[in-house]
Design brief:
The complex is a heterodimer of chains A (268) and B (426).
Chain A: E1 5-10, E2 13-15, E3 24-27, E4 32-35, E5 40-42, H1 44-60, E6 62-70, H2 75-83, E7 88-93, H3 102-116, E8 121-125, H4 136-144, E9 148-158, E10 161-168, E11 171-178, E12 184-188, H5 200-206, E13 211-215, H6 216-220, H7 251-264
Parallel strand pairs in A: 1-6, 1-8, 6-7, 7-13, 8-12, 9-12
Antiparallel strand pairs in A: 2-5, 3-4, 9-10, 10-11
Chain B: E1 6-8, E2 15-17, H1 19-26, H2 53-58, H3 65-76, H4 88-93, H5 100-108, H6 116-129, H7 135-147, E3 168-169, E4 177-179, H8 183-187, H9 192-204, E5 209-211, H10 221-225, H11 229-246, E6 250-253, H12 256-268, E7 276-279, H13 280-289, E8 301-305, H14 322-330, E9 334-336, H15 355-358, H16 360-376, E10 381-384, H17 387-400, E11 405-408, H18 409-416
The chains are: A alpha/beta (268), B alpha/beta (426).
């Protein structure tokens, strides 16, 4: 028998991707996206990762630690995540407003995870909703020198193995990892399910859970790694919409004209 | 400056805030402190002379309108920020945004209007963008997204209240009037009789009324008021699409919050409704004036009336103070005894501006203060025109161990018409 898995779930605070598109603006000059009236939230795939971890802990025991890298953390966002059932929270704080790129994020998180130690699983969303880069999870695995199972949908512990069902092109694959071979990194997609809804009593209780704040410079043991990626241009695609009325005396004629037009335009 | 500080951008989509203009307005505050109490001409007694719930509760200037004007101004000019005070969001959200300070300022400032309602909304939007809004509000917004209501109730049950009333379903039929129940009235079992009376009166009057049932959605106003301004656009579009589907020329709602959202907040995001919007009180007053409905039954009741902020002073200058009193005056047997703080000087029920969700103890205290005032009149019933106020008062009356009834005006109308919940024309 094992005593449950000690899991670290990496959660990124992002501007709410569910907010109305009209609230976002692309600032081409500053090469950034600005938003108005939009709150920060935990990136949705990271929520799926947390749900997968909470599900495992619920069945097999163990601990769930939330870890987040960034600056200007929202107490409400982190509290809500904690209230879903995680045990503790580690915030790795960066100074300054420059957002770290995927490489810098993976380096800092890998260093923070090492510092934390004693973990069996690291979970992260397959990609963050603000960048969609999808590199941090595999990056952490590479830097820690441990395997990664991408796009996990479900995980369980049976017969001394961590059994993970994960999405592969065109289907699913189930892989088993002997518990003695852990740790591994799982990146998690929407298939793992929506994060459970925390109730008010849980939110009240979550205020008492341990929360640590680590300075990113301390974690890295040096000055934080700089970005390797430079954004040289950022623009929103132009959207043009035209409305054409297809002529015809009968529905059949109209249908024929429409088909001809679609073929001419290369749509069919 | 009501509404003038905000306009929409060229796409008509996003709330754009002219913070500079709003900030200039905040400089008009001379700290005269007339926003701290009932207007001097309206003071009745010491006991009921306070008018600002957060100020009366917390006693620091920052919680009153004048203090807010000061630190909002400093915030908008960059002299002061979230880093300076970790309690800043708490102060910003410990306020029902009931409009009592704004209305005092309108009547007493000799040099210019300080628009604290809009400024509070903008401060809250900043809190939301920084992730500093109360977590309870994020749960409420999550519920709005998942179930289209602020109460975390299942969307599928939204239309259950209307069973057997003979209302059209606008998803399959056209109707001249779209009746919008609102979240609280759709789900609160204790208020079911009131919302059934509200729709029932229209049916009894022979009007062509439809509802969206389970497809009705929240008006979105509560999200806007707690700083989630971006959310309002989709609710406004949603409401417009339901109106189009129904073919309705008039929207009638018994909810003061929804009414205010349709009339005042939708235009702020460039989405005014293209149809007439009426509170149920206004429709009933019309039906009385035309002689369409008459009150035959005696309703022997001594009542006192609470003015909801959202159809009262927040609607400046289109106050709905007289309409409900006129209706009550028409009902045989009803005797109206007024509280000290009424109309412009109303003491808020406590539920507004996200206080109910984030600061329940402050909410309960505020409602308790109002119920104490209502009890002091000797009335048998506390009557209002808003489900949020009524819910709060029901709880506060129970908390006080008092025997006072809480009614909506429409319930007295329904009783005076001999009952209107059978789906028949009277």
């Amino acid at each position: 028998m094992h005593n449950g898995l000690n899991m670290i779930v990496c959660v990124k605070q992002v501007p709410d991707p569910e907010g109305p598109p009209t609230s976002y603006r692309v600032d081409e000059e500053a090469r950034t996206v600005t938003f108005q009236g939009i709150p920060p939230v935990v990136s949705p795939f990271d929520e799926n990762a947390l749900e997968l971890a909470l599900g495992l802990a619920g069945v097999h025991g163990g601990t769930v630690t939330l870890m987040s890298l960034g600056s200007r953390f929202s107490p409400a966002v982190m509290l809500k995540a904690l209230a879903t059932g995680a045990d503790d929270l580690v915030l790795v704080e960066m100074n300054g407003d420059t957002a770290p790129d995927s490489f810098a994020t993976a380096r800092l998180l890998a260093a923070a995870i090492s510092r934390r130690g004693g973990f069996d699983l690291v979970l992260a969303g397959i990609q963050a909703s603000d960048t969609n880069a999808g590199q941090v999870g595999p990056g952490i695995a590479e830097l820690l020198g441990i395997p990664v199972i991408p796009r996990a949908c479900h995980a369980d512990v049976t017969d001394g193995r961590l059994v993970v069902k994960h999405a592969v092109p065109g289907g699913h694959e189930t892989v088993g990892v002997p518990l003695r071979e852990l740790p591994v990194v799982l990146t998690v997609g929407f298939e793992a399910g929506e994060l459970r809804y925390p109730h008010l009593a849980a939110i009240k209780a979550a205020k008492e859970k341990p929360q640590a704040r680590w300075d990113a410079s301390d974690v890295a043991g040096m000055s934080p790694p700089g970005n390797l990626l430079e954004i040289v241009g950022l623009r929103a695609p132009k959207r043009e919409r035209r409305c054409l009325l297809i002529e015809g005396d009968t529905p059949e004629e109209q249908g024929e004209s429409l088909a001809v037009r679609l073929r001419e335009d290369g749509v069919l | 400056m009501d509404g003038a500080a905000l306009d929409t951008d060229t796409s008509g989509a996003l709330v754009k805030v002219d913070v500079d203009e709003l900030t200039r307005g905040l400089y008009y505050c001379m700290h005269c402190s007339l926003c701290k109490a009932v207007l001097p001409s309206e003071v009745g007694s010491d006991r009921f002379s306070e008018v600002c719930p957060p100020g009366a509760r917390y006693r620091f200037d920052a919680f009153f309108g004048s203090g807010r004007a000061g630190f909002y101004r400093a915030f908008f000019t960059g002299e002061f920020g979230f880093d300076e005070s970790p309690r800043l969001p708490e102060v910003v959200y410990s306020c029902q945004n009931c409009g009592s300070c704004s209305i005092s300022c309108r009547y007493t400032s000799a040099i210019g209007q300080v628009d604290l309602e809009r400024a509070t909304e903008i401060m809250r939007a900043r809190c939301v963008e920084e992730g500093l809004s109360p977590v309870e509000h994020s749960l409420m917004v999550q519920s709005m997204r998942q179930e289209d209501n602020v109460l975390g109730e299942p969307k599928a049950a939204r239309g259950d209240w209307a069973e057997g009333l003979g209302l059209k379903d606008i998803n399959s039929e056209k109707a001249e009037i779209l009746f919008h129940a609102g979240c609280r009235y759709s789900y609160d079992a204790d208020l079911r009789s009131a919302v059934r009376d509200a729709a029932g009166v229209l049916v009894a009057a022979g009007l062509d009324v439809g509802i969206a049932g389970k497809d009705e959605a929240c008006c979105g106003g509560r999200a806007y008021e707690v700083g989630y301004q971006g959310e309002l656009v989709k609710y406004a579009d949603d409401m417009a699409s339901r109106i189009r589907a129904s073919g309705a020329t008039t929207v009638v709602t018994p909810c003061a919050d929804c009414y205010y959202t349709f009339r005042r907040l939708f235009p702020l995001v460039g989405r005014p409704l293209e149809v007439e919007v009426l509170h149920i009180n206004e429709m009933i007053a019309r039906l009385i004036a035309k002689g369409v409905i008459t009150f035959k039954e005696m309703v022997p009741l001594r009542v006192t009336y609470h003015d909801p902020c959202h159809i009262g002073r927040k609607m400046y200058p289109e106050f709905m103070y007289e309409v409900p009193r006129l209706i009550l005056g028409e009902i045989p047997g009803v005797e109206l005894v007024e509280m000290e703080r009424i109309r412009d000087c109303t003491w808020c029920c406590g539920a507004g501006g996200g206080v109910l969700e984030a600061y329940p103890e402050f909410n309960d205290w505020t409602a308790g203060e109002r119920v104490a005032e209502a009890l002091s009149t000797g009335a048998d019933a506390l009557v209002s025109s808003c489900p949020w106020c009524e819910r709060n008062f029901i709880d506060a009356v129970a908390g006080a161990g008092a025997g006072m009834h809480v009614y909506d005006v429409v319930e007295l109308v329904g009783a005076a018409m001999g009952g209107v919940q059978d789906g028949n024309r009277k």
